[in-house]
Amino acid sequence: MKNKLLIILLSVSFFATAQTGITWSPAVSVSNMNMYSNLHPRIMLDGSGEPMVLWSKSSTKKVAFSRWSGNTFTTPVYLNPSPIDIFTSSWAGPDFASKGDTVYVVFKREPEIYDTNYIYIVRSFDGGANFSAPIRVDMIGNKISRFPTITVDNIGNPIVAFMKIDANFMNPKWVVVKSTDYGSTFSMDVLASGYSGGNGDICDCCPGAIVASGNNVAMLYRDNLNNMRDIWAGVSTNGATSFPSGMNIDQNNWMVNACPSTGPDGIIVGDTLYSVLMNQANGPALVYSGKASLSAMQGGLALNITGVLPGIIQQNFPRIANNGYVAAEVWKQVVTGGDAQIALKFSTNIQNGFIAGFDTVASSMANDIENADVAIGYGAVHVVWQDNSSGTVKYSKGTFIPSGISNDLGKKTISVYPNPFENEINIKLNSTNDFSVEILNTLGENVFYAHGQSKVNTSKLANGIYFIRVKQDNDLFMQKIIKQ
Asked: Are 322 and 316 in contact (CB under 8 A)?
């Protein structure tokens, strides 16, 4: 029996790690000490495309933050002052969003008392090097707030959603507030849920997610229509000023008289809302992926993210991120024998769908890895997850060649060496025709450009991953390079 089980697990692992074309770095701890804990990690990128990580610690009710400093992560700092204890768990907690080097973090003070404990935001305008004092977000009178989630508009102003409940813990709703002065003040809240009709309510113990692109804003949440707990989206086309309509973006009709304690996530690309969610309507708890037209207000049936595969017995806590059309979905799954994995699907163009297989970014023999998150830069995928064996947040970076790159020039024989490199790169071409050389960072920004230069001085480049792009005539060659 043990040998049969091992074969099943190995076949799942082999299938998972050979699919996306991403090259993964070894996992590292964001903090080398478990004193900072590891609950509910979230990841965003700064203006240079470097990772910033947020998580929390339940014993001290603190929210922790760390950012990449070039070679390692900085020593974590706590963002909530000692009088403010924050709500946190492995399945819910503080959230953050960024645009360039503008960073916003939202958290809920506990306990949930309507007249004293509120939702707060802290801000950084220098990529997380410094944060402001907390600013109150929710002006809701004698109501209770919980589960804040945040996004940013096109110019970097925060849009915050949270659950709003009567003082007797009845009549839960999702509401949205927005700022036009970079988080100094916020509008009065507007309703963004309650579209299922009848006695439709929301799942009051499930976190939600708010996403924005241009004037399109979607509030994703788990509904509760007489115990049918599908995922819905309230939709705004006026930049979160109002949410006049909503739609079922799940449609699996999951009936359960219990709290799933897990919510959705989403991204908006063009007119399409892409979503990920957990549903248990068709047997075990599995992760589903859906897409819906915002202009037509029409969503299709969300489908299991992996399909039926031997050895997978449970999936949960999905997240999704994009950089233009490049997108990735990440989630936790448990396989036969009780081992846990952090799995990832990838697409270089989400409009064409995701690659059929998935990568196993992390695995554990003792089911001691949990909630994960993902962010995408130019040519890079960044993943964090909660590792309970070490008590720390783990991080891994995957690199890929961006889509739309033709390597026709490579057929004419080109050599770029050495790789990895230190202070110089050599370029050798068979043809003597004029050519240009560009070096791009992981944000796609040009950090070097020259014509006909076969020796490139790279001494001013920081250590890290780059892409070299050589153009000659109508041909193009691109390759990932590493400075160390």
From this structure: no
Report yes or no: 439 and 464 within 8 Å, Cβ to Cβ: no
Write the CA distances from 424 to 367, 427, 462, integer angstroms. Answer: 45, 10, 13
Q: How far is CA 103 from CA 33, 108, 156, 211, 329, in A?
A: 25, 17, 9, 15, 23
For residue 224, give the nearest of 188, 192, 198 by alpha carbon. 198
> Residue 115: CA atoms inside 13 Å, Cβ hemisphere, count?
2
User: Domains of the chain: which residue ranges?
Assistant: 2-399, 408-483
pLDDT digits (tens, 9 = 90+) for 170-220: 899 999 999 999 999 999 999 999 999 866 689 999 999 999 999 999 999
Beta strand segments in 400-474, E: 414-417, 424-429, 435-440, 446-451, 455-457, 464-472
Give the amino acid at 323.
Answer: N
288's enclosing H/E stretch is strand 286-293
Map residue 269 onto helix, strand or coil.
strand
DSSP result, 12-61:
HHHHHHTSS-PEEPPPEESSSSGGG--EEEEEEE-TTS-EEEEEEETTTT
Tens of pLDDT along 217-270? 999 999 999 999 999 999 999 999 999 999 999 999 999 999 999 999 999 999
User: What pTM does this model have?
Assistant: 0.84
What lies within 8 Å, CB to CB, of 185 at 6+ separation is: 179
Question: What torsion, rounded to 10 degrees, do the Cα atoms 210, 215, 216, 220 define?
Answer: 20
The CATH class, in words, for 408-483 is: mainly beta
Query: What CATH code is assigned to 2-399?
Result: 2.120.10.10
